[in-house]
Specification:
This protein is of the alpha+beta class. It has a domain at 49-188: Gcn5-related N-acetyltransferase (GNAT) (Aminopeptidase). It is 41% helix and 21% strand. It is built from six helices and seven strands, in the order H-E-E-E-H-H-E-E-E-H-E-H-H. The chain has helices at residues 4-30, 59-76, 88-99, 150-164, 179-188, 201-213, and strands spanning 32-36, 41-45, 49-53, 103-110, 113-124, 132-141, 169-172. The strands form two sheets. A five-stranded mixed β-sheet has the order 3-4-5-6-7, sandwiched between helices. Strand 4 and strand 5 (113-124) form a beta hairpin. Helix 2 crosses helix 3. The protein starts with a helix and ends in a 19-residue tail after the last helix. 14% of the residues are buried.
Length: 232
């Protein structure tokens, strides 16, 4: 038989379980998750990401993101070409991302606050193969929200729109030295197909003149990395 004391304990246990369930359901609504430990209770903020198509009202947000992206790229590689972040051309490009034909620009938000975006545009080339491609022109996720799924969600949403539009191939560029971008895109399956190299003409001419003075001798490439001409 179960005595009164045991009945009281069972009732209290059931009440505690019901309270725990209610707390968990409320935590899901609030975007928080309570974790019980032996000595304390801590609340860990969940990342609830939503995405939506960008509109003209997002112009200032996109401009802010693009300026932060340019600073990040310049820090990654000071040799990159860059434009004045206060120029009208930059604003026009951002506007085109939100209103241009065959453009897809998606905003990622957490609690209705923008945390990143991605933009791409379809190009039709009847005389080339594949004839319909997309160029992912810009992507930015705020540093505090990286490695938590926001970037992957943006790419996934954009790719779905491209598939629906009949796009057959997607291309993008990232700056040499930007290890975050390299790892992110490679992790999704993007592989380099063309290498773009920059140089200052005077620097190259000086090096070429030096080689001529040395009797045409050129420095041998490192072992395992044979030199190739520009057409190879």
């Amino acid at each position: 038989m179960i005595d009164r004391g045991e009945n009281d304990e069972i009732r209290e246990a059931l009440k505690d379980e019901a309270k725990a369930i209610r707390r968990h359901e409320q935590a899901k609504k609030d975007g928080t998750l309570e974790l019980e430990s032996l000595d304390n209770t801590c609340k860990v903020k969940q990342l609830t990401i939503t995405t939506r198509p960008a509109t003209r009202d997002d112009l200032d947000t996109i401009l802010t993101f693009r300026k932060r992206l340019q600073r990040h790229l310049t820090d990654s590689n000071p040799r990159i070409w860059r434009r004045n972040t206060e120029s009208d051309a930059l604003r026009d490009e951002a506007l085109d991302e939100t209103t241009g034909p065959r453009k897809w620009t998606i905003i990622a938000e957490e609690n209705h606050s923008p945390i990143g975006y991605i933009s791409g545009g379809a190009i039709t080339r009847p005389d080339e193969e594949p004839p319909t491609i997309d160029v992912i022109t810009t992507m930015w996720v705020e540093p505090a929200h990286r490695d938590r799924g926001a970037g992957t969600r943006l790419v996934r949403d954009l790719l779905q729109r491209l598939v629906d539009a009949g796009v057959e191939d997607v291309t993008l560029r990232y700056v040499a030295g930007n290890s975050e971008a390299e790892q992110f895109w490679a992790g999704l399956g993007f592989q380099p197909t063309i290498t773009v190299a920059n140089a200052e003409p005077r620097t190259i001419m000086k090096a070429m003149d030096g080689k001529r003075r040395d009797g045409g001798q050129t420095r041998q490439p490192p072992s395992g990395n044979p030199g190739k001409g520009p057409d190879q």
